[in-house]
């Protein structure tokens, strides 16, 4: 997740890059809660939504011992501390935040209408939001700013003096806001300047016009900017620490999982059995010489054979060993991408077969299952005509594939397990549209396509999946050979670069399978380094690990 330029609502440490995307809301766009006039509401003691203690979650020290974060940082170049704004817990937190600002607004309104009662109720500070807010701002600035600016604001934000001025009606809100804005803008990232200016504008204009709501919005804006500055500082530290954290991954994870295994909290015997099964397959059925196998795979042929099987659609996801729980989200995404690749190729085969039949024989869809197969060339065509025909067919096929991808990429209306069932009809319509086949054959095409996309026993599906598996294994071998001798940081850098370059390939299958192979090799090489001595290999074999 990348940093947000807007004023954030709340800040927490995101401990994984595989979480839901964040959202943010600017304070000037939010509707405030209704005023509450009950005395119990006015007497409630509340702390500001952003304080020194809540921002402690953004301390790098708090997350560098989190195994999920330490694992994800190896794969996600955009991993950042960020906003977490989702779910029932966040809704409650948002309500509490809105309640604080609404309570502050009510208290300030009471000060205007009944200063004596407010002074009497809150002279000692119980339930009084303003001194708590001033104290929070002061504490946060002390942790963010260099000593010179911190000392300046420490003098300006003297809570007792400010509250005395407030009670006497001589507190200069504009001057206070100008000082705070000046110091923040001299220390914050440039992208925060607009938020600082907006907070000061609301505070100063609200003060001049006696608009309590704007004054509160300005105070809210300043507090959010302080949270954003803490976020920026944490992400800067994370960028500096990333290489050392990545390089230390294997040592950190092995120590963590050794403790789990020793405590009986993790059983690696099923993972060992899974690996041994593929080790037997490789030893029995592969004709790869031992020295050639080691040169290509670095002694990991069995492991990567099994790993590549885990991402194929026909493999039951329950077969994924428990040792992959840190990579489970990535494997699910890889399986989904491979399913899309296989099904898109099936759709393209139906399109190609029907297009050839229409162009050369004028055939409509018959009752035979093999209508979507290629037909022989017309021997009467010249070489130039054949070249032009082939070029035109490739161009149309690219357009068709783009239309298929657009349908697949559209937001699903149901669960992922039913997504391809719902796509059968629109994909069939798209095939007919591009081949000019009569619409009355749509039901038959839908039935055939549905069977090929969903039935693991379908012959076309089995052939296509086998082709993709062989292609994946070939591309995977290239990348493992390239990755196996790299340091962890080198692996992270090269895998990140290759993922970007593969997306630019013109051949969609090469691009798709190449991208999956790179991600799988990246995941697998690091996994093997961590788990080979813990679960897969006997101690005498550990030296063969990548």
Automatic annotation (TrEMBL):
Residues 1-46 are annotated as: Disordered. It comes from Pleurostoma richardsiae. This is Protein SOK1. Residues 1-18 have a biased composition (Basic and acidic residues). GO terms for biological process: protein kinase A signaling. Residues 19-32 have a biased composition (Low complexity). Belongs to the TCP11 family.
């Amino acid at each position: 997740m990348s940093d947000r330029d807007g004023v954030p609502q709340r800040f927490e440490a995101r401990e994984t890059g595989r979480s839901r995307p964040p959202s943010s809301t600017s304070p000037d766009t939010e509707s405030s809660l209704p005023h509450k006039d009950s005395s119990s509401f006015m007497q409630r003691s509340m702390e500001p939504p952003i304080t020194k203690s809540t921002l402690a979650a953004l301390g790098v020290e708090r997350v560098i011992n989190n195994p999920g974060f330490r694992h994800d940082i190896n794969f996600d170049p955009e991993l950042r501390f960020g906003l977490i704004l989702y779910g029932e817990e966040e809704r409650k937190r948002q309500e509490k935040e809105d309640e604080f600002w609404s309570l502050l607004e009510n208290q300030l309104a009471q000060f205007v209408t009944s200063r004596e009662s407010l002074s009497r109720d809150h002279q000692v500070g119980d339930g009084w939001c303003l001194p708590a807010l001033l104290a929070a701002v002061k504490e946060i600035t002390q942790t963010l700013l260099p000593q010179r600016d911190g000392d300046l604001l420490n003098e300006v934000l003297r809570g007792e003096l400010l509250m005395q001025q407030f009670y006497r009606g001589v507190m200069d809100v504009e001057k206070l806001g100008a000082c705070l804005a000046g110091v923040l803008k001299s220390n914050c990232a440039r992208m925060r300047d607009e938020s600082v200016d907006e907070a000061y504008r609301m505070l100063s204009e609200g003060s001049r016009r006696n608009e309590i709501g704007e004054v509160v919005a300005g105070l809210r804006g300043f507090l959010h900017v302080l949270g954003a500055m803490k976020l920026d500082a944490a992400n800067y530290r994370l960028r500096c620490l990333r290489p050392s954290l990545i390089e230390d991954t294997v040592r950190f994870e092995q120590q963590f999982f050794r403790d789990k295994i020793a405590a009986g909290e993790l059983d690696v015997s099923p993972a060992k059995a899974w690996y041994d099964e593929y080790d037997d397959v490789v030893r029995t059925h592969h004709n790869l010489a031992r020295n050639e196998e080691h040169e290509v795979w670095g002694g990991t042929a069995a492991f990567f054979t099994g790993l590549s099987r885990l991402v194929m659609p026909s493999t039951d996801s329950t077969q994924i060993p428990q040792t992959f729980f840190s990579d489970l989200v990535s494997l699910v995404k890889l399986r989904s991408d491979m399913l899309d690749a296989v099904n898109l190729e099936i759709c393209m085969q139906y399109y190609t077969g029907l297009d050839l039949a229409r162009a050369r024989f004028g055939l409509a869809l018959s009752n035979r299952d093999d209508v979507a197969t290629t037909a022989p060339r017309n021997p009467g065509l010249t070489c130039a005509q054949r070249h032009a025909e082939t070029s035109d067919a490739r161009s149309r096929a690219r357009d068709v594939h783009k239309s298929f991808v657009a349908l697949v990429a559209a937001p699903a209306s149901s669960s992922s397990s039913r997504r391809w069932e719902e796509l059968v009809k629109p994909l069939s319509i798209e095939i007919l549209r591009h081949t000019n086949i009569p619409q009355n054959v749509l039901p038959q095409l839908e039935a055939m396509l549905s069977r090929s996309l969903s039935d693991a026993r379908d012959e076309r599906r089995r052939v296509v999946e086998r082709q993709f598996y062989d292609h994946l294994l070939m591309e995977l071998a290239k990348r493992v050979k390239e990755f196996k001798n790299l340091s962890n940081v080198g692996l992270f850098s090269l895998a990140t670069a290759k993922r970007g370059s593969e997306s630019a390939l013109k051949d969609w299958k090469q691009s798709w399978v190449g991208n999956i192979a790179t991600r799988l090799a990246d995941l697998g090489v690091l996994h093997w380094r961590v788990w080979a001595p813990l679960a897969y290999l006997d101690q005498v074999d550990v030296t063969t690990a990548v």
